[in-house]
Design brief:
Blueprint lengths: L2 H8 L1 H10 L20 E5 L2 E4 L4 E4 L2 H4 L8 H11 L10 H13 L5 E5 L2 H16 L3 E5 L28 H9 L1 E4 L4 H7 L5 E7 L3 H4 L5 H14 L2 E6 L10 H6 L5 E4 L10 E5 L1 H4 L9 H6 L12 H14 L3 H24 L3 E6 L2 E6 L19 H13 L2 E2 L5 E3 L6 H20 L7
Helix pairs in contact: 1-16, 4-14, 5-14, 15-17, 16-17
């Protein structure tokens, strides 16, 4: 029986909920949850595991899209959040918890002299773009192809080919010209192109994705971080490192602490709020001070102040969850544990691949793991620099389907995050399941001999 037929048999309740959801939505609430023939619906999660509405159990590597370093429903986070609910969920004023949250970020993140809270990583990068343009007086953002900074118009250019167009192909010509004109896209990891692009005086900021494109799917050469820092300083351009995924996961100070490069501004998300909705912008005080409202200075407030409202900014629920997570993450122990388990998992995946002679590879960027089927160049299974590799959407969906059928949940099958609560037993069970997945993919012609 083919995997798609088994899927229909295994998930009758998920199918029913999906069909019901089509009456009020598109059936999913995030592009990456797209699945063939339909998505699974989860009932509950705990630790490293999740269960769907049909009673199937999974070892979970989606981990809240990378936001859960401590796994699902960590007791300390549950206690902090439930305690705060009884004290209020939205004060409509400032609160001490948000202040403590910001203070912790400034102690951990090298770039963080001051902090401003938002709700999502996309919002954080939108605010950073405004700050960069206001501070420099320049109009354009520069980015490498493939690097992802959220779904706002001017940052979604250059994520997928053709790189000169936004990922949202529906934009009408006038809007597309406006969006693309404000964003300069250069070839991924091309230092010479970076230097050339910074030769003028129109670039407000260079945006880099922490760990490299797509959460380290395409890594960055270590020296390129330092080259980018030098070139931006020389050209009067702000350097931005997006740490939405890597912040507090790569280390207590994020990717920037590991690579030894301090940017002018950084976006933080996912883990910064302990797995609840929340994000932040942090950076140099003189740039962040553009957010200040000055009493008695209408000229500043109207023409220099960078406007930033937001109903849910620094919400107390997010603040207490963020504080709780950061206190634990500050030790560095969860990150070391998660990365060690990620390396163990990747080694197991590659053993199964080599055993079958399949053209595929697995590798990790800290505790993020990646799977790729097909040719892959410039990859030592620790750092992959192949910007040209790719999988068809059909193959990605087949991989995702086979993993689910064998009790493993990764984000669309190709990316996952290992938490500090994944055990050696979880890893061994996942590696065994992956062997069965490979056999099934070979039968269906997705996995091919090298």
């Amino acid at each position: 029986m083919r995997s798609i037929e088994r899927f229909f048999q295994r998930y009758p309740m998920s199918r029913e909920l999906w069909e019901r959801s089509l009456a009020v939505s598109r059936g999913i609430q995030h592009d990456a949850r797209s699945s063939d023939p339909f998505p699974i619906f989860t009932s509950h999660c705990r630790g490293s595991r999740k269960w769907d509405v049909d009673g199937n159990e999974y070892i979970d590597y989606t981990m809240g899209h990378g936001s859960l370093l401590l796994g699902h429903a960590h007791p300390s986070l549950v206690e902090a959040v439930t305690g705060q609910v009884g004290r209020g969920t939205h004060y409509g004023t400032e609160c001490e918890a948000a202040l403590e949250w910001a203070e912790m970020i400034t102690r951990l993140v090298p770039a963080a002299e001051k902090v401003e809270f938002v709700m999502t990583g996309t919002e954080a990068n939108m605010l950073i773009a405004q700050l960069a343009r206001a501070y420099t007086g320049r109009s354009k953002i520069l980015k490498f192809a493939e690097h992802f900074f959220g779904w706002c118009d001017h940052l979604q250019v250059g994520v997928v080919p053709p790189y000169e167009r936004p990922i949202a192909g529906h934009l009408p010509p006038m809007a597309e010209d406006t969006v693309s004109g404000g964003t300069v896209v250069i070839p991924c990891n091309d230092a010479a192109a970076l230097e050339k692009a910074l030769g003028g005086e129109d670039i407000a900021a260079v945006f880099l994705e922490g760990g490299g494109a797509h959460c380290g799917e395409i890594g960055m050469p270590p020296d390129l971080w330092h080259t980018a820092r030098r070139l931006t300083r020389e050209s009067g351009t702000l350097l931005v490192i997006d740490e939405v995924i890597t912040g507090f996961r790569w280390s207590p100070g994020g990717c920037q602490a590991v690579v030894g490069v301090t940017p002018d501004l950084s976006s933080l998300g996912k883990m910064v709020s302990g797995g609840l909705p929340g994000a932040a912008v942090c950076g140099r005080a003189e740039v962040m001070d553009l957010l200040q409202i000055r009493a008695g200075d209408p000229e500043w407030n109207r023409y220099r102040h960078v406007f930033h409202p937001g109903t849910w900014n620094a919400n107390p629920l997010c603040a207490v969850a963020g504080i709780t997570l950061l206190k634990i993450a500050a030790t560095g122990e969860p990150q070391r544990t998660a990365e060690a388990m990620a390396k163990r998992l990747v080694a197991g995946f590659n053993r199964q691949i080599e055993k079958r002679g399949v053209e595929a590879c697995a590798y990790n960027a800290s505790s993020a793991i990646h799977l790729h089927f097909g040719p892959c160049q410039r990859c030592d299974r620790q750092l992959c620099l192949d910007a040209g590799k790719g999988m068809s959407s059909e193959d990605i969906l087949a991989l995702h389907r086979h993993l689910l059928l064998n009790g493993v949940n990764m984000l669309r099958g190709t990316i996952g995050w290992v938490s500090a609560v994944h055990t050696e037993q979880d890893i061994e069970q996942t590696v065994d399941a992956f062997g069965i997945v490979l056999d099934g993919l070979m039968e269906e012609g997705v996995a091919k001999a090298a």
